[in-house]
Design a protein that fits this description.
- The protein has helices at 40-46, 147-150, 161-169, 186-194, 206-211, 219-233, 261-277, 288-291, 308-327; strands at 2-4, 11-13, 17-21, 24-28, 53-58, 62-70, 75-80, 83-89, 93-99, 106-111, 120-125, 131-133, 139-145, 171-177, 199-203, 239-242, 283-286.
- It has two domains: 2-133, Jelly Rolls; 139-327, SGNH hydrolase (Rossmann fold), CATH 3.40.50.
- It is α+β, with helices and mostly antiparallel strands.
- Strands 2, 5, 7, 8, 10 and 12 form a six-stranded antiparallel beta sheet that branches.
């Protein structure tokens, strides 16, 4: 059974937009039609579908996809009814193939590469297979951050820390982790404002430190502007603001703008205090050192990015501290 990539029965969950042309379908994490309004470096990262999965109900026992060649070391992960089945290595591949799927009707989810682009040309299922659209009605979570949220170093796409947390809590994830590009851009704040959301988390600071893109004069004001912009579309939902995780070489070393990570954490905490004094009772602050602190340094090989095991630890701490504080339980 052959399907076109733009078949309406395929739901590209977690994508902000789809680029559809004669080649196939490519998911984006910003609106493709106005992508040039975003910084060019952010556009590059937004073309990588971190957290995106295409999903459907089917009784198929085979899934074969024709794709554009993917040169990077990346994978696609298959889940059936929420259970991991297999990862497929896409390096230098123009297709993927999963065989011997569980029999019977099931929810099929394919988690797409978090560190390379992905263009689906066509999809092949078992002969005579039934396929129905899946509409995800779970709680909608948007998480915004840097490469530490995009998670190139994770084991595979469904083992990034946002993906682990989303599956554990049955969240409908939209991941806005952009490697090197979390600078509190107004266009991203507007995007989050306009997307459906029940919960937003923001991990900010490390890219701003690294690029010295905001100094003490502008940093706090940019956080305030970001939160107030999001509040225009989501006045009452919980928003978690998380300061930078541990990075030993940056903790007390000033960047070109005069910031250390320790100072940035204090600025973020003070900003949340100011906003809460303006009656934003659904805004929460979490110290990044409690999410990933010096006790986990062994999982920080480059002193900045967690490795695969580090992302598992980060997910566990995010669950324990952030999700359980806001929602009271891991059961949703």
């Amino acid at each position: 059974m052959q399907l076109k990539a733009d078949d309406v029965r395929l739901n590209w969950v977690g994508a902000v937009s789809l680029e559809i042309n004669e080649k196939g379908v490519m998911p984006w994490r910003i609106p493709h039609g106005i992508r040039n309004l975003y910084h060019s470096q952010l556009q590059e990262k937004a073309s990588m579908p971190a957290g995106v999965r295409f999903s459907f109900h089917s009784n198929t026992e085979i899934i074969k996809g024709q794709i554009a060649n993917t040169p990077n070391d990346s994978q696609i992960d298959l889940y059936c009814d929420g259970q991991w089945i297999k990862s497929y290595d896409l390096k230098n591949a123009n297709h993927f193939l999963f065989e011997n799927l569980p029999a019977g009707q099931k929810l099929v989810e394919l988690w797409l590469p978090q560190k390379s682009t992905f263009l689906l040309k066509s999809l092949e299922l078992s002969s005579g297979a039934i396929i129905k659209r899946y509409d995800d009605t779970q709680l909608r979570w948007i998480t915004y951050g840097s490469s530490i949220t995009q998670c190139a170093g994770a084991k595979s796409p469904s083992f990034t820390w946002p993906a682990i947390v989303a599956r554990q809590n049955h969240f409908n994830l939209t991941c806005l982790g952009f490697g090197g590009q979390c600078h509190l851009d107004l266009m991203v704040a507007r995007l989050i404002r306009d997307l459906p959301a029940d919960f937003v988390s923001i991990c900010c600071g490390i890219n701003i430190y690294g690029a010295s893109s905001l100094g003490p004069r502008a940093f706090q004001q940019s956080i305030i502007g970001t939160i107030l912009t999001i509040r225009e579309g989501h006045p009452d939902i919980p928003i978690a603001l998380i300061s930078p995780i541990y990075s030993p070489t940056r903790e007390n070393s000033k960047n070109a703008a005069g910031f250390t990570l320790a100072q940035m954490r204090n600025e973020i905490f003070q900003t949340v205090t100011i906003l809460k004094e303006q009656n934003d009772e659904n805004l929460f602050y979490f110290d990044g050192l409690t999410i990933f602190g010096p006790e986990l340094n062994q999982y920080l090989p480059d002193q900045l990015h967690p490795n695969a095991e580090g992302y598992r630890c980060l997910a566990a701490n995010f669950q324990r501290l952030v999700v359980n504080t806001i929602f009271g339980s891991s059961e949703n």
